[in-house]
Amino acid sequence: MKKYDFPKGFLWGGATAANQIEGGYKEGNKGLNIADVLPGGKERYNILMKPGFDFEIHEDQFYYPNHEAIDFYHRYEEDIALFAEMGFKAFRMSIAWTRIFPNGDETEPNEDGLAFYDRVFDELQKYGIEPVVTISHYEMPLHLVKEYGGWRNRKVVSFFERYAKAILSRYKNKVKYWMTFNEINSGLVMPINGLGFSYQSEEDKYQPTFQAYHHQLVASAIAVKACHELIPESKIGCMILFAPVYSYDSNPENVMYAMQEEQLFNYFCGDVQVRGEYPAFMNRYFKEHNISLDIQEGDLDLLKDGTVDYIGFSYYMSRTEKKVKSDADSSEGNIIGGVRNPFLETSDWGWEIDPEGLRISLNKLYDRYQKPLFVVENGLGAYDKEEEDGSIHDEYRIDYLRGHIKAMGEALEDGVGLMGYTSWGCIDMVSMSTGEFSKRYGYIYVDKHDDGSGTLKRKKKKSFHWYKDVIESNGEIL
Q1: d(Cα 179, Cα 223) in Å, to the nearest integer?
Q2: Pure H helices in 295-394
Q3: CB burial of residue 367 (10 Å; 0-12, 13-18, 19+)
Q4: How many CA atoms, within 13 angstroms, populate the side-chain half-sphere of residue 178?
Q5: Is 377 one of the annotated active-site residues of the chain?
Q6: Is the distance from CB of 304 to CB of 277 less than 8 angstroms?
Q7: If we measure between CA atoms, which residue out of 189, 186, 168 comes closest to residue 177?
Q8: Contact between residue 317 and residue 352 where contact means Cβ atoms under 8 Å apart
Q9: Bridge partners, residue 339, by sequence
Q10: Which of 94, 183, 284, 410 has a 20 to 30 Å separation from 113 between CA atoms?
């Protein structure tokens, strides 16, 4: 097998999110966030993709898996020791906003929450693992949603600034790598998670969505500036859900449609956060959708001054598009839309598997921005089976990851600047999109099931040992 030359100091590791692993949803004076009111199972997907969510807990109807998750809150020492055994150089995690400011609009942070992350960072430091911290990862305080309307409200910018500065100041000697908002562009399809509101109908979504985006992009720039001032040696990035958009065929109408979809979804937020200004292609989009942004004095200067140091992004799938679709074209598994690509296989959940698309993505992003790239999410959600002896032979996951790591190696040879790879779900956790435990991504199996049963016992899968060899050899052994 061809061997690849990954850079010295490459940040191999795994990625998680606080709301999907921590549990302890009311412990340490933590407040409720968006994830705490999302039920488990297929109902969650329907809520995320349709208008009209009420942001309430209905325990008589639903099970809420994020409340306990996999109990990282109490088991972080055990889990970090397993990450260290694999040889992690980096661990991507997020801080739960509601552990630090339970309602989001307090003037002083919650010491219990701050102290918890101190302990986590100290544990990582013990093993020489660099934390890569996402400031906001799909867990906006519920109070800010209900009382202020989420990111539609300008006041949320100042609340976020207070939160960001509190954690940057507290952990300035413990965290070097930061990112502002997780998959910031995902609000275009799932505004509940990313923007903190549920529009009431398809027709009224445009103005509030892009006004919310403006506030969030300003908040991101403020956090970047604060990070550079408080931690001069730090690196802070954006985080984009990236899916290259292919034209279904060579029909110029389909090619143009695919290009426009890629501009809006893949590049709109990235252009603002990396280049520091709204891209020209958005002028026509705003005009055609009757969008008029309330941009306050100084906002555009902030965007220009608060550009990121690197581009973090998730890559799970590509997307194929044509201008006129029929029901037969549907690619329902791909949550970002598109039509079925006949050249690709799919996962257990219908997500199209396209390793070459990662190489394409890396080249597109590096050509556009010429800044370091960091693949901070990539993985395979699958059903895992325990054998009679308790072992878990997840060769399908190894095959998936091997293909994508090879694609990164090829991109490096193409001349792309790539700083690290933290595969998604290094340990099994609650699925963001469906709230299921059975959609497993990890190298580490967690005995927890969709009905809430399970011992939470951790167990190494075959992929655990494989990834350990990958890291130890710096990508030579695949």
Answers
A1: 9
A2: 299-305, 355-369
A3: exposed
A4: 31
A5: yes
A6: yes
A7: 168
A8: yes
A9: 320, 330
A10: 183
Considering the candidates 22, 377, 410, 436, report the single residue annotated as catalytic. Answer: 377
Domain 11-472 has CATH 3.20.20.80: yes
Question: DSSP per residue over 339-355, as a string?
Answer: B--TT-EE-TTSPEE-H
Tokens, residue 64: 């809420």
Six token digits for residue 164: 């960001």
CA distances for 396 relative to 50, 83, 348, 434, angstroms: 32, 21, 11, 21
How does pLDDT run along the chain (478 residues), one tens digit per residue?
899 999 999 999 999 999 999 999 999 999 999 999 999 988 898 888 888 899 999 999 999 999 999 999 999 999 999 999 999 999 999 999 999 999 999 999 999 999 999 999 999 999 999 999 999 999 999 999 999 999 999 999 999 999 999 999 999 999 999 999 999 999 998 999 999 999 877 667 899 999 999 999 999 999 999 999 999 999 999 999 999 999 999 999 999 999 999 999 999 999 999 999 999 999 999 999 999 999 999 999 999 999 999 999 999 999 999 999 887 676 666 678 899 999 999 999 989 999 999 999 999 999 999 999 999 999 999 999 999 999 999 999 999 999 999 999 999 999 999 999 999 999 999 999 999 999 999 999 999 999 999 999 999 999 999 999 999 999 999 9
Structure tokens of 14? 């795994």
